[in-house]
């Protein structure tokens, strides 16, 4: 029984034997999924890694980190001057919920240090700059407009579904 139709990627399974040319033509995220496995809450790349543990692959002739490819495919572009930080501290993990966008200089600080914690508060995990806002009760909070808009449209969509 052979089925050489491509039905999309499965975690940790290179679904059918591919020539290296065909393999390179698959979407990069699919190739990452096929070469990853669950590790507790993380989804880790099992292919090639850098010496310090980041998943790597060749994309269009250049070396790219797998967590960056996954973020751009699943979340969106990484703004200039920003980089991806692992909240889970598992460098081969690419699960977007475990990642966030930070300014490049923040990522070089110890992730648990006070300076890093304060710097982190300036932006949401998608890298949007926070602004100060005040609840009707008078309590101040931080928010970012792009995420507030996204959450509002998501909750509108949910309400629509329920109807
Ligand atoms: Zn993780
Ligand atoms: Zn945001």
What is the gist of this entry?
The protein is α+β, with helices and mostly antiparallel strands and 163 residues long. 31% of the residues lie in helices and 21% in strands.
Report on the architecture of this protein:
By secondary structure, the chain is α+β, with helices and mostly antiparallel strands. Helices cover about 30% and strands about 20% of the residues. The protein contains six helices and eight strands, in the order H-H-E-E-E-E-H-E-E-H-H-E-E-H. It has helices at about 20-25, 30-35, 65-75, 105, 115-120, 145-160, and strands at about 35-40, 40-45, 55-60, 60-65, 80-85, 100-105, 130-135, 140-145. The strands form four sheets. It has a two-stranded antiparallel ribbon with strand order 1-2. A two-stranded antiparallel sheet has the order 3-4. It has a two-stranded antiparallel sheet with strand order 5-6. One zinc ion (ZN) binds near residues 124 and 128.
Primary descriptors:
alpha+beta, 2 domains, 8 strands, two-stranded antiparallel sheet, 163 residues
């Amino acid at each position: 029984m052979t089925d050489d139709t491509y039905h999309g990627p499965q975690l940790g399974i290179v679904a059918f034997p591919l020539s290296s040319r065909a393999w390179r033509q698959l979407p990069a995220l699919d190739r990452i999924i096929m070469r990853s496995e669950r590790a507790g809450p993380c989804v880790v790349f099992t292919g090639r890694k850098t010496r310090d543990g980041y998943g790597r692959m060749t994309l269009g002739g250049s070396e790219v980190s797998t967590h960056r490819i996954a973020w751009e495919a699943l979340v969106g572009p990484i703004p200039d001057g920003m980089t991806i930080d692992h909240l889970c501290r598992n460098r081969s993990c690419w699960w977007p919920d475990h990642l966030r966008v930070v300014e490049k200089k923040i990522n070089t600080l110890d992730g648990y240090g006070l300076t890093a914690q304060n710097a982190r508060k300036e932006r949401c995990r998608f890298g949007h700059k926070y602004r100060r806002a005040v609840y009707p009760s008078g309590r101040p909070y931080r928010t970012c407009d792009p995420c507030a808009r996204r959450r509002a449209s998501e909750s509108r969509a949910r309400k629509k579904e329920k109807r």
